[in-house]
């Protein structure tokens, strides 16, 4: 039996004047999952959410909710709760009245309303503050009430557009964990928008990385981080190092790549992009995360699976839990993050930098 997705976007194109802001979006959201749209400012995250909510229509393509095309269905009939990016609560209404608003629109019986509002406020740990006005709440409390207001109508679909923006780091962290817990507790299908990669990785079942109106990759958080499919995803998520090379040979599981005068290795499963047909002589770009590299005084023969290359230290920064070490390798600056570092080493010292072919990614030029 074919399962029906809670939301499906097929071939959506959206233009504002001559500006194409969504350029062929295809997306499937499964029942009960927390899916995050992640990407830089202006890439089309809010526009995508507004298409699903019905505040905007696509110029081409269609949106389906539970298998039904919703092209002409107005937002209030789409059975969704939404927290908007730019404004949240009605300032002239109390917390209770803010939550009551959506219930009134849905003509919920008076006898049920009190119970539903109490339950929603309990879920976000705001019970007892029913009579406060938004101005009498802290930023974090307001965000919670905005989430409660979206939840109180018991929507089939929850749309959260950067609900944690404008909060300090500690509160963001707390609310992040709370939203995740709440979402799993009530099992509501949720689309969460953020431009914060750590937020996306820590909260989501799946992450959609967007760039300039297109989807670059849809994967689990670990796959997004460890197996990015495009250069954009690699560089947008986490820190990255990259350098140029030329394929020397390929033997079954490993690709040998000439970098400067050295040879380094890449697992064949780590070819990024759509063109995975690598041949000797191909010009390629190699990518590796700073924390996937090791520093040693000499090539470590006990770790024969690692490639070691001679490099020169150019800067050392102590960050508390890690050391950030900048090196020059074949004339190319690279950064290494390491929890253990011999503090007697200094700028200008020669060291060996090592990595596993399993952590090196390759993209054909
Ligand atoms: N109503 C509009 N009229 C014209 N252009 C618009 C309109 N709404 C959005 N845009 C443009 O569409 C593009 C995508 O905007 P969108 O709000 O979807 O970005 P976003 O990914 O949510 O960004 P942010 O992280 O800054 O919120 C931007 O270039 C924006 O300027
Ligand atoms: Mg936005």
Automatic annotation (TrEMBL):
Species, as recorded: Siminovitchia terrae (Bacillus terrae)
Family annotation (SMART domains): AAA (SM00382)
Protein name: ABC transporter ATP-binding protein
Stored Pfam families: ABC_tran, TOBE_2
Matching InterPro entries: AAA+_ATPase (IPR003593), ABC_SmlMolc_Importer (IPR050093), ABC_transporter-like_ATP-bd (IPR003439), ABC_transporter-like_CS (IPR017871), Mo/tungstate-bd_C_term_dom (IPR008995), P-loop_NTPase (IPR027417), Transp-assoc_OB_typ2 (IPR013611)
Domain of life: Bacteria
Domain ABC transporter span(s) in chain numbering: 7-237
A molecular function GO annotation: ATP binding
Any one GO cellular component localisation term in the record: ATP-binding cassette (ABC) transporter complex
Keyword terms: ATP-binding, Nucleotide-binding, Transport
């Amino acid at each position: 039996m074919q399962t029906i997705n809670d939301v499906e976007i097929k071939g959506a194109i959206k233009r504002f004047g001559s500006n194409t802001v969504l350029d062929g979006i295809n997306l499937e959201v499964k029942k009960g999952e927390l899916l995050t749209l992640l990407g830089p400012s202006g890439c089309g995250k809010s526009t995508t959410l507004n298409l699903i909510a019905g505040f905007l229509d696509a110029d081409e393509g269609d949106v389906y909710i539970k298998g039904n095309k919703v092209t002409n269905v107005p937002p209030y009939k789409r059975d969704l709760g939404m927290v908007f990016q730019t404004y949240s609560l009605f300032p002239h209404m109390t917390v209770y009245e803010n939550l009551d608003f959506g219930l009134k629109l849905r003509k919920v019986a008076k006898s049920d309303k009190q119970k539903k509002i109490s339950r929603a406020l309990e879920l976000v740990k705001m019970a007892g503050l029913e009579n406060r006005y938004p101005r009498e709440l802290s930023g974090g409390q307001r965000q919670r009430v905005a989430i409660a207001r979206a939840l109180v109508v018991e929507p089939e679909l929850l749309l959260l557009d950067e609900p944690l923006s404008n909060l300090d780091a500690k509160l963001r962290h707390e609310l992040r964990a709370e939203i995740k817990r709440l979402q799993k507790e009530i099992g509501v299908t949720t689309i969460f928008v953020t431009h914060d990669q750590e937020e996306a990785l820590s909260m989501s079942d799946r992450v959609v990385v967007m760039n300039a109106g297109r989807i670059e990759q849809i994967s689990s958080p670990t796959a997004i981080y460890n197996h990015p499919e495009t250069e954009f995803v690699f560089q947008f998520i986490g820190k990255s190092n990259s350098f140029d090379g030329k394929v020397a040979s390929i033997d079954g599981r490993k690709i040998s790549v000439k970098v400067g005068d050295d040879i380094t290795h890449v697992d064949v499963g780590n070819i990024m992009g759509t063109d995975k047909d690598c041949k000797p002589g191909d010009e390629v770009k190699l990518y590796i995360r700073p924390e996937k590299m090791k520093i040693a005084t000499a090539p470590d023969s006990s770790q024969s699976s690692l490639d070691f290359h001679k490099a020169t230290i150019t800067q050392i920064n102590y960050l508390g839990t890690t050391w950030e070490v900048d090196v020059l390798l074949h004339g190319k600056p690279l950064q290494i993050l390491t929890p253990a570092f011999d503090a007697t080493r200094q700028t200008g010292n020669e060291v060996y930098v090592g990595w596993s072919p399993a952590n090196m990614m390759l993209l054909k030029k």
